[in-house]
Amino acid sequence: MSMTAERVPTPALMDIRPDNWKLAIIAGLVVSVIGCTALPVAAAFWVVGAMFAMVAASFVVNAYRRHYYGGLLISPAIAVLFVMNIFPLLWSLGLSFYAYQSSQQSMRFVGLANYRKLLTDDLKAPELWANLTNTAMFTVLTVSLQMIIGFLLAVMFAKQFPLRRYLLILVLTPMMLSVVAVGVFFSYYYDPTFGLISQVVKAWTGEQFILFSNKTGAVAGIVFADAWMWSPFVMLLVLAGLVSVPKYLYEAASIDRVGPWRKFWTITFPYIRGLLMLALLFRTIEAFKMADLIILLTKGGNDTMTISYHVIRIANEQNKTSEGAALSYLLLFVVIVLTNLYLYIANRRSSQGN
Amino acid sequence: MTKMTTLKSFATALSFATLMTVGGATFAYAEDITLTMAVPDWPPTRIMKKMFDEQYKAKSGNNVKLEVDFIPWPDFYTRVNASLTSGEQKYNFAVSDSQWLGAFVEGGYFRKVNDLIDADPELKAVMDGMHPAPLNAYSTYPNSTPNYYGFPQFPDVLVNFGRSDILCNDEEQKNFMAKFSKKLPCTGEELDAMTWEDFENVGKFFQRKKGDMLAGKPADDDFYGIAFQAGKGYDFSSMQINGFIWQGGGNVWDETKQPKGQAEGVVNSPEAIKGLERYLNLLQYMPPVAKTGTMDIFKSDELFREGKVAMNIDWIGLGEASLDPKTSKVSDKLVFGQAPGTMGADGKMVRWSNIGGQPFVLTTWTTDAQIKEAVGFVKWWLSPEIQHQFAAGGGQSAIKAVYEDPKYTTYRPWNRAWAASLDWQKDVWHVPQFFDLLTQQQDQFDLAITGKQDAKTTLDNVAKYQQNLLSEAGLIAK
Predict the structure, then answer these.
(1) pLDDT of residue B14
(2) Pairs of CB atoms within 8 A across A/B
(3) In chain B, which among 295-354 make CB contacts under 8 A with chain A?
């Protein structure tokens, strides 16, 4: 890339040129606003889309003329991100201020009514709260179980022993299965009539064992299935950390006659801490979104409804699109707060460590 | 290229083009027309597709192809709903569960078919020849008005699946007589005559543990007398509970009485509560899975086919699998009857039950050419000959002339219960809010089924929710 080219002067604001992105933004905004007020929704959608494309094109031309090649190179990624993520996000934010059902053709601006209804309605607010507490419970239980099991598995597989490779493949299998397959598998596993658990318990007590007959059992069943599936993921990350610890550190520690506990805390742990935190973050975010296993195993019965499943129901099944959008935004808010809290703690920890 | 050859080739091309045009004018081309259909994946739709592929020739001479998306039942609503509301306009035809009509008619997806029926005397005659219960449930919106939207694809009712080897066993017969002073129902006629009390007795009677004597042999596993749907998913408890409520003189929110008809006071009337209590009371005699909220129509059918229960109330649509020795351990020991009823004060049996089955419905974006072929297809489908074939292959017909034919009862063992059951079918709501009503109700019923709350609390909660939702939607006026 040569830097010899002359710097092209920035065009004046009202200069009609393809690289005048400031003017493009203003024109785009004006046309979009007029289009939205004057045209039917279906046409306005495309007008706004065309305006976005125009602004994007002028950015590209501008970048090209001024040799911002770095910007140009990432522009396809940004375009995809915009079309697939940012635009739908903004669109659903807009929807959450309307009374709109995807199965009906009418649309009415209602301001914050959807949010107010979700948070204060005497039928909906308790349901939302119950689903949120359930989600929190599942998150804490599944993630802590996965971290413990995953960590122990990793410690085991960090050592060499016969058949290690085959066992490792076997242990990693659940992670690669589809959630649907796992759900169906466990629903048979737990089934009181045909299920393995019930058969084993029956051999002792003579009675069929109904795991899903109360909330404790149902939660235990779901948590176990989820941990079965995702502990290998935690294991994989931790294992990567464990094998990266240089052997000579342990050898040096052995010469100094350091005990195994101290070896772990001063040598091993610093190497895997970052990966543990990463595993924790990934699994927490995933657990917060848990719906698939619950749909397959209990359908939300025995008070196991989570917030994600609740959103699916409202937005997809009952077609209450705007109410679902509002709920999603409340959820997004919670996730952002939690993630920032996590990052804050993680950063403080690592700065202390240093 | 010389001028001459250019001219020559031009002339050839011209004559060829003329030939094409003339040919096109004189012989109508057989057009390729594809009808895309969304259907639930089960025998009645598989049979239809097979019959279509093997036999269908459009009268118009066009090559009509039927492209069918088979969707598993538990996801069927979600998938069709997503397709319709997303605006992808994929399907010309959808097999729609009867309750969906309101939601999708109001949304502008389902096409009204009155004009097609009026324009076609043959089709009109077919519609007139249909039993009014399925016709109203599958075709009309608002319910029971002459506004038609669908044609029956597969009509269905709940029937009683029984195990003749157990029920007709001499020893069991003798013991049952000794215990209840009544005959253990064994033949189809005896099953027809059963009340829910008799059904309960069968449940009480067959509570066998592994190793206990069952029909003269030690049972190889726990064995239970009765089963019916008690699942949390889709409508897998409402469809049975509604029957109990109606038979006891109660009612669900009645959409035909809009806007005067209330939910509170009706849905939780003492009769309705009594009905739900009777339903819940029977669960204790069923396989333990009944109390988990996962015993849906498929589970109870599976239990029956695996030989774990003596009687199961289920849809005819699931019946084929129980007849097939590959999927059923009881294929050669079956007896079928109408679902049990309630003895009225006048000594006559009351048998109200929730209708099953589905219509197919045309979507609004279907082109005129496709509609023409679709009507042709519907007429073919509802013609007596094809309906007889369908019934012989395991389907059902709502057309009187077909099911009143003496041959009809010989096709499948449950067909003997068909005509008599039809008169007692009602349906739940077809309003756009149906899925909202249904999921809340299923959640509440699940709490009752799993023993977390009693019948009164359950129906009070349902009534309160419905009153609130339907008032907001303007379907209930205070």
Answers:
(1) 53
(2) 84
(3) 303, 306, 308
**Distance of alpha carbon A320 from alpha carbon A118, whole angstroms:** 12
> Does the pLDDT of residue A35 top 80, yes or no?
yes
- Distance between CA atoms of residues B155 and B395, nearest Å: 8
Helix boundaries (H) for B295-406:
297-305, 320-323, 368-382, 384-392, 400-403
Cβ within 8 Å, pair A299-B293: yes
From A190, which residue of chain B is nearest by alpha-carbon distance? B289
Of the two residues A351 and B344, the one the predictor is more confident about is B344
pLDDT confidence of residue A101 = 81
Residue of B77, B287, B293 lying closest to A301 (CB–CB)? B293
Give, to the nearest 10 degrees, the angle between helix A124-158 and helix A113-120: 80
Give the tokens for residue B230: 């008690």
Question: What is the 3-state secondary structure of A165-224?
Answer: HHHHHHHHHHHHCCHHHHHHHHHHHCCCCCCHHHHHHHHHHCCCCCHHHCHHHHHHHHHH
| Residue of higher predicted confidence among B99 and A329 | A329
Read off the pLDDT of each residue in A293-310 and give the average, rounded to a whole number: 88
Asked if residues B398 and B130 have their Cβ atoms less than 8 Å apart, the reply is: yes
Distance of residue B380 Cα from the nearest chain A Cα, in angstroms: 32
Range A154-162, long-range pairs (CB < 8 A, 24+ positions): A154/A234, A154/A235, A154/A236, A154/A238, A154/A239, A154/A241, A154/A242, A155/A238, A155/A242, A157/A235, A157/A239, A158/A239, A158/A242, A158/A243
Question: What are the backbone dihedrals phi and psi of residue B463, each rounded to the nearest 5 degrees, phi first?
Answer: -60, -45
Strand ranges for chain A from DSSP E? 98-100, 107-109
Q: Are B255 and B236 in contact (CB under 8 A)?
A: no
**HSE-CB of A180 using CA atoms within 13 angstroms:** 1
Q: What is the ipTM of this complex?
A: 0.70
Distance CA A261, CA B209 (A): 54
- Examine the pLDDT at A275 and tell me if it is beyond 60: yes
pLDDT over 50 at A48, yes or no = yes
- Closest Cα in chain A, distance from residue B403 (Å): 36
Q: What is the pTM of this model?
A: 0.81
Peptide bond into B259 cis (omega under 30): yes
Task: Identify the pLDDT of residue B28.
Answer: 54
Confidence of residue A21 (pLDDT cuts 50, 70, 90): confident
What tokens appear for B109 in the block? Answer: 């997806």
Sort out which chain A residues have CB atoms less than 8 A from B439's CB and list them: 313, 317-318
Q: Do B232 and A212 touch (CB under 8 A)?
A: no
Q: Which residues of B touch A318 (CB under 8 A)?
A: 435-436, 439
d(CA B290, CA B301): 12
pLDDT band at A108 (very low <50, low <70, confident <90, very high): confident
Q: Is A199 on the interface with B (CB under 8 A)?
A: no
Mean pLDDT of all residues in chain A? 87
Taking an 8 Å cut-off on Cβ atoms, the answer to whether B232 and A298 are in contact is: yes
CB contact (8 A) between residue A191 and residue B103: no
CB–CB contact A317 B77 (8 Å): yes
Q: Show the low-confidence residues of chain B (pLDDT under 70).
A: 1-29
Nearest to B387 by CA among B63, B126, B149: B126
